[in-house]
Amino acid sequence: MLDIKSLSASIDGKKILNGFNLKIKPGEVHAIMGPNGSGKSTLANVLTGKNGYEIKGQVLYQGKDLLDLPIEERAQKGLFMAFQYPLEIAGVNTNNFLKTSLNTIRKVRGQKEVDSLDFLKLVKTKTKNLKIDEKILSRQLNVGFSGGEKKKNEILQMTILEPKLAILDETDSGLDIDALRIVSDGVNALRSKERSFLIITHYQRLLDYIKPDFVHVLVDGKIAKTGCGELAVELEKVGYEKMGANK
Amino acid sequence: MKQQELEKSKEYKYGFTTDIESVRAPKGLNEEVIRFISKIKKEPEWMLSWRLKAYSRLKNVKEPNWQKPKYPKIDYQNLYYYSAPKSAQDKPKSLDEVDPKLLETYAKLGISLKEQEKLSGVAVDAVFDSVSVATTFKDKLTEKGIIFCPISEAIQKHPDLVKKYIGSVIPITDHYFATLNSAVFTDGSFVYIPEGVRCPMELSTYFRINASETGQFERTLIIADKGSYVSYLEGCTAPMRDENQLHAANVELIALDDAEIKYSTIQNWYPGDENGKGGIYNFVTKRGACRGKNSKISWTQVETGSAITWKYPSCILQGDNSVGEFYSVAITNNYQKADTGTKMIHLGKNTKSKIISKGISAGHGDNTYRGLVRISSKAKNSRNYTQCDSLLMGNKCGAHTVPYIENKNSSSIIEHEATTSKISEEQLFYCNQRGLNQEEAVSLIVNGFCKEVLQQLPMEFAVEAQKLVGISLEGSVG
User: Fold this and answer.
1) pTM over 0.95
2) How many CB pairs under 8 A join A and B?
3) Is B59 left (phi over 0), alpha (psi -120 to 50) or beta?
């Protein structure tokens, strides 16, 4: 699914990722943990194609070079990111945004566009399954949403777009326990043999709900340690410093 | 989208010229030319003397210069004031007699006059340079007593109505361009809806400038008699030319007791090239009088074209309980400039007005909202709500809001809200990450921004306007 080979990324001359390697196979769930400033969000941004980074190295996505593709083409090919800080767009109705997004992606994939009525049915089922108040659909995109509502909206979008590889960038931060459960249920419901996840988080808490296949500890722009679920628990106990953060 | 297609779509789609033989008045502005126009239009004596009165006034007034967009001095003696396709000189009686070249022109603009007559429920008056070349659905409208015809025809056939109302909202003494128009106006539409009649279809005029070095002086007059209703829409395009061309229109609306007029504009005159060369000067006076009680006039405008747009569609709320509305989207991209807004003059009791203005600036575009809300001492319990929003794209464009409020009545309520926002890189990244390309993302955000205004358009045109908004801003990001 994803093969990252000695990836380096700098912003304004400052090196953030430094020889980062990672392989994700279809169906796998990888968690990346790390202290502030270790490069977690940079990794997500570089993979999705955000501007402003100087990049070296190679990333293969489904066997093809990812880094040359424009942002929207990566998305159209099934790469999704749940944003740490979802953007507010005034005037744009949430339902309309979701529908436009889904239909753009479907069109590129050669699928038929979903009409308004069918879409409404689909989105209503999904909100119900995710226990999200469907009122958010008629509101302006993320405008005036609480932190929890914004994150739930990200999960709703992920559920509707059915990506092949989903990156969750600190989706758990700032969530109360109920919202955390809704987010986790959303992810777990989407887990399948074909779909992979890259979950970026500060805390082990989320991994109580979403059981990862691998946990990586990111320190100073590269993976310092890799393990299974227990690694997260251990991290929580001893902190990042013991894991090689040379501070 | 492939690069080539993208380049293509960025061009002004309506920039072609129709090669057609035309009849012109001699170049320049003088009494002879005015007499020429009046004669070729077979006008009665009173119309000619009205024109001449305006012309003699014109010699003593100067062009206003308080507007934000400045322009090089216009040489009024170096313009043609009348240009018409030769074939349209004797007005064709039916569509079958219309010059195929003209029908083809309108078909290319997306208005198939022949099909329009059969299929859609929109009656169209097509104005080409200085003359109306065709009006559809005439018979069906006549059944209801509705008059929808070129104003030149109305002057001959319905002189009493024209005489009574022309210049009654925009007097010939109003200001330079209104006076100029009164002297040299050539064609435009005339609409009369009789008492109690609800016009069964959209009425629409399509203005096309074709000839070079020619000014277009449109004159439109719409009268809604007691208890009647009409929805009217105008569209405008012009060829791509290096010269600046002048379009100075006068539009007058009159709504009597309990009558309603909805007037929509989709203005897509040639905006000039990406370096600001060429384009139309759109200097227009539009004013409606809510003369009767409980009457209503609603202006909706989508202004995407023209090098300079300078207009204030206004409402004079004379009748008690009358309502005036102004919904506007103005887009300035590249080097386009706009100074637009409205005047709401409250004279009657319990009069209400609503102003929703959305200005979008991109490239080096400069956008000014200028508006006046005046509440007289007699306008008890009157209300105004104004909302002016500006959206900026990039860091070379400008947005300005200049609201004037004059209130002489303590029982009135006036509200004014204004915002300025910018499309951020982060917002675009978010949309891109959801599979939308740059243009689609901008179109989505911008259409969301001006949704309140676009919703006011008749359904047949709303989709078209949405697309136009997207196209006007293509190439403005990234």
Assistant:
1) no
2) 69
3) alpha
